[in-house]
């Protein structure tokens, strides 16, 4: 092998190595914070690295004082119960720096809400996923990629404006498509809720 071929080979090897490092670095920038852990009102913790164990993860930014969130408590419980056996898990995230545990316990008792509520006090997860209102949902696949986000359904079409019942179920449709391995037709629908 000539000196020129050796230099060329070393250059290609170094370039490939640098490119690989850049790909790895930027892929971590585009993914949610895998090292992030959030405490909850129970003994459970939210750890982003655990989401890879689920077929899909529904992250819901949720405020116990928001009237729209209050109306979705039953549906969120039903989604968790109906889909948990199929590998879909619901994570309810409270994205505020002040947490009143007594008020949250009172809310859970009043609405018979048995899902853990995780506290994103520094709003790292909120900013990572770019949430803006409550309730706002993010459906992630087991690689941590958001495949649907926005409104749960079309029950509310404005603040204080709602239909008798939802006629389009964006989140449920996305979950069903994920389970069946189909393409998700609607990947975003503007959420209606309490501004963050």
Automatic annotation (TrEMBL):
GO molecular function, one term: oxidoreductase activity
Gene3D superfamilies linked: Glutaredoxin (3.40.30.10)
Domain Thioredoxin: 25-180
PROSITE patterns the UniProt entry points to: THIOREDOXIN_2 (PS51352)
InterPro entries, A to Z: AhpC/TSA, PRX-like1, Thioredoxin-like_sf, Thioredoxin_domain
Pfam family, one: AhpC-TSA
Organism superkingdom: Bacteria
Protein name stated in the entry: Redoxin domain-containing protein
Provenance organism: Emticicia agri
